[in-house]
Amino acid sequence: MRLLTTLLLLLLLRSAEPRRGPRSGTERGGGGRVRGRGRAGVTRRQIQGCKEYMEAGEKYLDCQDRQLTTVMQDWPKDIHHLLLARNKIQVLRDNMFSQFTQLKSLDLQQNDISMVEDGAFSGLSQLTTLLLQHNSLKTASEEILLPLPRLTYLRLYDNPWSCRCSLDSLIRKLQVPSNRNLGNYAKCAEPHSLSGQKLKKVNVDSLCEGDNQVDRRPGDREGGDRRPPPFKPVKSEATSMCHTYMFPKPLLDCSKKDLNHIPSDLPSDIVKMDLSSNSVKHLRPKQFLLSKDLKLLNLSSNSLHRIDTAAFAGLLYLRELDLSNNSLHYFQYGVLEDLYFLRKLSLANNPWICDYNIHYLMYWLKHHPGVAFTGLICAEPQEFRGWRVEDYVKTYNGECPKDRQTGGVDTGQGGQGGSDNEAQEVVVETSNGQVLPRPLKEKKLNRFEIIRLS
Question: Domain of life, per the record (predicted)?
Fold first, then answer.
């Protein structure tokens, strides 16, 4: 029994020694290396699983999906972008972010925020982007925006806003013409008479007048239940299923979301949109009409087999379009006519069929020489498989030559054994003995025909 007790004491003493070592070293100062390690350990504990990284010379702190209910005061204070989406924050208290004086963007979407105190954003004089969509906000005042002189983007949609007198000052702020990107798409949830109206369009003068009136729906009986039905926000697919990032450029990331169609209500201020790796089969007209600022659209690795005319209507500034890894055979006439400033078109790994229907695509590319394109290779028919589409089109559109002549000289008068109207195919034999058409020379006009009309 004594032996067992002795062994247990020895084990306890050994397990306690490593904990004492670093602590005593820290107290002694221990040199630069020991202090550096100590600070690194503190940073890891402070961030609590958040990811700190640099991009384009600016520091990001990504604390999304961490079940956080507040902001930790010992987080790094020199960050430029703080990502707090999809947490459990309910109230934004005064001076909650005041230590982050260099902050440029603050992402608080998809929390449970129901209250914002007037001084919540004090100290954020450099903030340009504030995301508060997908929360439980019913009211707020203009006071919350006063510490934000540089605010350019403010998102408030998918909140159950109560359009009453208490919201008067905020709505007036949003409706100032110069604030064109503040509060877009946010809508009233109550009273019933204003339900569904955008805050940007509400008649502000009527908000306080109606506060003393009973909100009653048509058909309600006297003394009946006059309360409006509970608000159930209808979430846009684009914002509820996809992730929105504002820095370094506004990006809507909808990749790998099992989408079989383009989401509705696409944001209008997005510059990049990633819809890759889904199951979209058909692009219908005007599905991107509101995304006028879009410069990059990635539709790769879907199941696209049809793109309607006007599918890209409105994408005046689109620079890059990725349609690789789909099931496209050709483009219908007019599909590309809205892409005036396109510079890069990715078309690889599509089963392009080299027949008459492919000519529109080559015709458009020929008249837009500034567009760099890749992956335009014939998959069908068998005799043209592996050919570049442009080589096939040259063969198809080439002028039928005159009969062969000795020396290969074409006099323009027709040769022996043939006339101008007789066609003869020029062929080339490949290394495996297969005979394929060869691209023909472009037609050259060398005479005029004058027709006299009587």
Answer: Eukaryota
Q: Of all helices (H) and strands (E), which one includes residue 92?
A: strand 91-92
The CATH 3.80.10.10 domain(s) of the chain lie at 45-207, 241-384
Q: Provide DSSP, 288-303.
A: TTT-TT--EEE--SS-
Q: CA separation (Å) from 361 to 350, 389, 428?
A: 14, 10, 26
Q: What pTM was computed for the model?
A: 0.52
CB atoms within 10 A of CB 344: 15
Q: How far apart are CA 153 and CA 425, in angstroms?
A: 64
Best CA proximity match to 386, nearest among 433, 344, 436, 426 = 436
**Order of strands, sheet of 153-155, starting from the edge strand that comes earlier in the sequence:** 51-55, 58-62, 81-83, 105-107, 129-131, 153-155
Q: Report the amino acid identity of residue 154.
A: L
Model confidence over 174-233: pLDDT tens digits? Answer: 999 888 889 988 999 998 888 989 999 999 888 887 554 444 444 444 444 444 444 444
Residue 441: DSSP 8-state: P
Q: How far is CA 280 from the centre of its chain?
A: 16
User: What is the Cα gyration radius of the chain?
Assistant: 34
pLDDT tier, 443 (very low <50, low <70, confident <90, very high otherwise): very low
pLDDT digits (tens, 9 = 90+) for 283-311: 999 889 888 889 999 999 999 999 999 99
Q: Which CATH superfamily is domain 241-384 in?
A: Ribonuclease Inhibitor (3.80.10.10)
- Asked if residue 451 lies in contact with residue 428, where contact means CB atoms within 8 angstroms, the answer is no
| Beta-bridge partners for 131 | 107, 155
> ω before 191 within 30° of 0 (cis)?
yes
Q: Please check whether the domain covering 45-207 is classified as CATH 3.10.20.30.
A: no
* SS3 assignment, position 415: coil
d(CA 277, CA 259): 9
DSSP code at position 67: -
- Given a contact cutoff of 8 angstroms between Cβ atoms, the answer to whether 330 and 347 are in contact is no
Q: Return the sign of the alpha-carbon dihedral for residues 376, 378, 384, 389.
A: negative
Cβ atoms < 10 Å from Cβ of 37: 14
Q: Would you tell me the crossing angle of helices 389-397 and 359-366 to the nearest 10 degrees? A: 100
Residue 138 has pLDDT above 60, yes or no: yes
Rounded Cα–Cα distance for residues 240 and 273 (Å):
15
